DNA sequence: CGGATAACCTACATGCATGTACGTATGTAG
DNA sequence: CTACATACGTACATGCATGTAGGTTATCCG
């Protein structure tokens, strides 16, 4: 029984206990959202998978929407920490774009990345707070990519083409597609994403010598939510 | 006109009426599925948007699932007619892949293409008849692409890389991504899809002279369902 | 040790969407 | 003109998921 397990385990502070159950619920919710989406997500299943009941969930989150928004916020944090920070360290716009392509393709191995796609597709064309939250993140990211594309063009690094905003949308779509389609493949080849976006942007292809070696990146498993 | 022909045309009136309302409901359902997905699709809205009530819908379709399956079948037909046939006419595998890339990117302008994506995402990882129907279509398509990739490799047209099945998944993902992200943009540049998949597959980029001209394809609006 | 507070569970109320049964009107054949 | 079939509408029943209220158990502090 749950109560016996709790009383038998090591004593924790109330805040710790709260944070721990909150993390468990968030993780279960992220898994559920990535597979079932928002509408098909049933809260009792989420709570049970985390080892609780709906009562605990409604004690920690206001409602279903609040739970989903918390998951979206968690996604944004982890993405910024794992991908955005790496891209910000690059000085040249092309390098930053490639860093985003490879980093996001790698990030797509995580459960949360699939949740991002699922929610975005589900709420496209709707007017729902969760959809707006997702759109805000993606729009910010797209704006950054559009600025990078514009900068790379003005410096002559990539040839002219469609408007930067449109190219940025296609760019992110390509990166996401490669990441999602290849998530679960081992070894995970993040260079495929780079090859695709190079073609899209009009950059010269990667050197054949490097390409033949096929460098594969290995990712650590999902971390615990904070 | 003979009496048989007259009675035949008269007998047709009911069948025609049935087919017309069926088409109207199918079209409304496709629109609804592309924006709301399956779970959020409300049959009363579908029927009302087609100018009927749920009674007519349940007279022509067994249930919600049957309606969605009919939409999926309609998607498959139109896709084969507009994209698959074009690809089959190409003799060289690379040309067939490019034809699929450009054709599918163009096809993505249609409402139904968005429904295809929405349903596929919604039912990924589920065991639902609608999801199976979608998966069957996509799997067949992916198998065709994988065969084309393998053929192109054995003829030396494209360099070696990840397994053809994985490449085919990424290929379709890229094509879909470019098509979806750029649907609604005008002029619609199907060549972006070609550039992206060329990079992905390891093909040389398109000639700059042709690229600079930026040939845009214009599509007719959605046809009536048959 | 014991009250207070927070974490958590159980049971009920509500709303919404599907599916079904039945009613009506229009078309069709003998 | 009569009898039947088909297209479509209306109203009810059911199931399911959310949200809420109140009770129970665990933790904190004087």
TrEMBL record, chains A, B:
InterPro entries: Homeodomain-like_sf (IPR009057), HTH_TetR (IPR001647), Tet_transcr_reg_TetR-rel_C_sf (IPR036271). Residues 42-61 bind DNA. PROSITE patterns: HTH_TETR_2 (PS50977). Keywords: DNA-binding, Transcription, Transcription regulation. Pfam families: TetR_N (PF00440). Residues 19-79 form the HTH tetR-type domain. Transmembrane segments: none annotated. This is HTH tetR-type domain-containing protein. It comes from Micromonospora andamanensis.
